[in-house]
Amino acid sequence: MADTVEMLTANEEQTRDLGERLGRRLQRGDVLLLSGDLGTGKTCLTQGIGRGLDCKGNVNSPSYVLMNEYAGRETLYHADLYRIEDVEELDDLGLWDYAERGVLVIEWPERGPELLPGDGVVVELRYGDVERQRRLRFMPRGERGKAIVGALRPA
Ligand SMILES: Nc1ncnc2c1ncn2[C@@H]1O[C@H](COP(=O)(O)OP(=O)(O)O)[C@@H](O)[C@H]1O
Ligand SMILES: [Mg+2]
């Protein structure tokens, strides 16, 4: 798809730095869906996003609570749908409403609605060919998605 940006990282710190770069550009209303196997770096990328949003405290895996929130320049809402068992739980969570109050990052979107209701970015994370390498594909949705992903492109 046009405008997709693919990037390789060689280690955890590079993934976090990439997230930080992304986080600095994010605004209220932005939604990112992070899709990929366990251990591909979804939480690591989100930690970087938290830094980029000047969030206090370390972002960690919200697996047991479905959603964590971190105050920052904008509030980061970090959801992990891995443990979602039925869609009713998701309805209870009122997922998309969070985007109106801050930046919404969702791990395991394939457990839930998957499709972005509006603009945003779908990120696919995969293991690379060598140890610690990761492949991240940033796929923009809508004009806002393009602006976010466009800013990641090396100048
Ligand atoms: N290039 C890399 N990017 C991100 N994480 C990496 C990388 N190389 C190794 N790792 C390790 O992979 C794991 C990623 O974990 P995590 O971010 O929790 O993944 P996920 O949320 O996708 O399950 C961490 O243990 C991290 O140290
Ligand atoms: Mg995770």
Task: Name some characteristics of this structure.
27% strand; 155 residues; Rossmann fold; binds adenosine-5'-diphosphate; single chain; alpha/beta; 26% helix; binds magnesium ion; globular; 4 helices
Describe the structure.
This protein is an alpha/beta fold and 155 residues long. The chain has a single domain, classed as 3-Layer(aba) Sandwich (Rossmann fold). It is built from 4 helices and 7 strands, in the order E-H-E-H-E-E-H-E-E-E-H. It has helices at residues 12-25, 42-52, 87-93, 142-150, and strands at residues 5-9, 31-35, 67-70, 75-80, 102-107, 120-127, 134-141. The protein has a 7-stranded mixed sheet. Strand 6 (120-127) and strand 7 (134-141) form a beta hairpin. Helix 1 crosses helix 2 (42-52). The longest helix has 14 residues, at 12-25. The protein is globular, with a radius of gyration of 14 Å. The two termini are 21 Å apart. The relative contact order is 0.24. The mean pLDDT is 91. The structure holds adenosine-5'-diphosphate (ADP) and magnesium ion.
